[in-house]
Design brief:
It is built from 17 helices and 10 strands. Bound molecules: iron/sulfur cluster (2 copies). One iron/sulfur cluster binds next to α14. The site of one iron/sulfur cluster has 13 residues, from α14.
Length: about 400
């Protein structure tokens, strides 16, 4: 992908990746006061056969808690907002409803229903009507099957008949699905071929490129593509088993090396976010990228990358990030190691949920998701296992240790 300059040099310069990963690359967004002008969306793309002209940067609103921030993001030209029934038990939809009640015409809106094989047409329509009520709108542009992990689920007759009725009633315009599980390729390609889905929401970033072929298939069938997990988990501190003194010592030394390296190569911590976004925007078959925006500074940092070209220091920025986090980021939708676990541990799920806690600082969300994971999929027996999974991880993650730590961290 890149020339490899910074990774090799950085490691050669003595900043051991494990230690380096202990310090966040992102030292903080620019202060809002430094932004003299409201950033503006510069590019709108057609979202497959929906024909919707969507901003290349969209709002993944799951973690947004401020209606004024959504108002601001819309003023910046963002016109695609993604939510779901499941986010904060419907409270996220209610938050977006505050805006939809006032300026619904300014944005395209997606919400999602998590499917179960026992769902009926009536129960799905009833749940969806509650979504509309919270969203204070008559319709959504895309209704998605949320985190749909099997062909069986996305083919559920009750779901499709419910959607047909909702569409006929003008309550949902298009059908989509979201997938970030190890089954992403299989399920998304199946849905694209199936012909009933207009939009897919999937993982694609500079460290997890496996969706590239899915995106090509989607293009052929005119299925719109929306991207999540663009920033490759934004890995910061993962040193919870070290003493405070050890953490401080490592942070100081590593921070010194990082600063030195950044100075030598003219890299900025803030530059990483923009580089990661622009890397995805190179793919012209991508409609929009959903980015979490929890604060005005997040919005001011992300939106200026709209319409941007992947040039200049961008490749070095990403190489630098990969050097710091290559053996820490459990690639979304990967699962290579899982087939080698005799206990059936859902490695990819567990480490993704752990990243909600550690990286996104969404502790409650992470603990609830972990509670809901089937007991048989939790890493209960890792302490007494030689670590078959770890030998299979092509990225060198210390999988066994990470799982043991994740279980301790996430268990109520
Ligand atoms: S350490 Fe052993 S039990 Fe735990 S996930 Fe890996 S292979 Fe499975
Ligand atoms: S630990 Fe490694 S092999 Fe296993 S899911 Fe994560 S990135 Fe893939």
């Amino acid at each position: 992908m890149m020339d490899g300059l910074s990774r090799r040099q950085f490691l050669r310069n003595g900043a051991v990746a494990g230690a380096a990963a202990a310090v966040p690359l992102r030292t903080g967004p620019p202060e809002t006061s430094q932004v003299v002008q409201k950033p503006k969306i510069k590019e709108y793309r057609t979202l497959g056969r929906t024909g919707m002209k969507v901003s290349d940067i969209g709002l993944g609103a799951a973690y947004t808690q401020d209606a004024a921030l959504i108002d601001y993001v819309l003023d910046c030209g963002v016109n695609y907002v993604d939510t779901g029934e499941r986010y904060s038990n419907g409270r996220n939809e209610a938050l977006i409803g505050e805006l939809a009640g006032k300026r619904r015409k300014d944005f395209f809106l997606t919400t999602k229903l998590a499917l179960r094989l026992t769902d009926t047409e009536e129960s799905l329509i009833a749940r969806f009507n509650q979504c509309l009520s919270r969203l204070q709108t008559r319709y959504v542009d895309v209704l998605m099957a949320h985190d749909s992990r099997s062909k069986e689920l996305i083919s559920l007759p009750a779901f499709h008949s419910a959607f047909r009725k909702l569409k006929a009633d003008g309550k949902a315009r298009f059908l989509g699905l979201s997938e970030h599980d190890t089954t992403m390729d299989e399920v998304c390609n199946y849905a694209i071929e199936d012909g009933r889905f207009d939009v897919v929401l999937l993982v694609y970033n500079f460290m997890q490129e496996k969706a590239a072929d899915i995106i090509k298939n989607a293009k052929k069938k005119e299925v719109g593509v929306v991207i999540m997990k663009a920033l490759a988990a934004s890995h910061p501190v993962q040193m919870r088993n070290l003493t405070r003194a050890q953490q401080q010592e490592m942070q100081q030394e590593t921070a010194r090396r990082i600063q030195q390296f950044q100075k030598e190569h003219n890299l900025t911590p803030e530059g990483f976010n923009g580089a990661a976004i622009r890397w995805i925007l190179q793919n012209r078959d991508v409609g929009t990228i959903l980015l979490s925006m929890r604060s005005f500074d997040d919005a001011n940092r992300h939106i200026p990358s709209s319409g941007g070209k992947f040039t200049g220091q961008d490749p070095a920025q990403l190489d630098f990030y990969a050097a710091l986090n290559g053996d820490r980021y459990c690639r979304h939708a990967c699962g290579i190691c899982q087939a080698h676990c005799p206990d059936g541990v859902a490695v990819n799920d567990v480490l993704r949920i752990e990243s909600y806690f550690t990286n996104y600082r969404e502790e409650k969300v992470a603990m609830v998701r972990y509670r809901d994971l089937a007991a048989a999929q939790k890493p209960m027996g890792c302490a007494s296992c030689p670590g078959y999974c770890e030998r299979q991880c092509p990225y060198g993650l210390p999988v066994r240790q990470r799982l043991i730590q994740a279980h301790a961290l996430l268990s109520l």
